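Reopening this ticket.

The earlier resolution said the output was attached, but the attachment link was broken on my side. Pasting everything inline this time so it's all in one place.
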Amino acid sequence: MAVSNNITACLNFLVLLCTIPIAATGVWLASRQGEDCARLARWPVAILGALLLLVALAGFAGAYWNRKGLLACYLFAMAALITLLLALIVFAFAVAHGSGGYPVLGRAYEDYRLEGYSGWLRGYVTDDPRRWEGIRSCIAASDTCRKLAMDSTFIAPEQFYQSHLSPIQSGCCKPPTVCGYAYVSPTVWTSPANPAADPDCAAWSNEPAQLCYGCGSCRAGVLGGLREQWRKANVALLVATVALIFVYVIGCSAFRNAQTEDLFRRYKWGNI
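Inline output:
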């Protein structure tokens, strides 16, 4: 039983390592969302990772020193946190399932529309005007479009058309392709051939402070950036969760060992 609990203590040490990528994923999401000016679920993953770390420490101590009470608390708390983590992953997968990006003929980048995203995500940028105004002002003040405008590699229109733009660059820094604007530079376009093809066609402006920040495509681009981040984060969270579930099962075995040893000790001392 001592060997079994030592092995369990080692496995619970591994759970400490499993919580590191979860907390790191939360910090990465928060930092990336700060750069993209959208703060959707900014810190929950990091907080959940920190809680898992504390619980894992309790599990390690309980398994190593064979403390039945500590192991019981560990198992209860770990079950609750794993359930929350699974719920977060399922929610994130459901929310990030739809995509507002669609391919454009002759372009390496995609254009973006709000219609492709889940209703919950669309509501994030449409239900609260003050929230969107803050995101819009943040993007306008950032270097996202300014760096694109200063990119010296775009000498000919074809070079720009074959570039791989980020969702925000495509949605906010240029007009929708369907409008038929003529390319002058990455952030300067003239003479739309189909000005009535999309409401965003009339919203476009060559003014650096305006561009397409008021377009629906810009909102869709913001959601596209969030979707890419969460899809990457979900992979790390899913792998870490599978490992946590495995260690949790081993923790249950350690708890049963602790109970058995306690009963054996009582029986032994009761018969001396």
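Reporter confirms the inline version is readable. The beta strands are 101-103, 110-112, 182-185, 188-190. The first strand starts at residue 101 and ends at 103.
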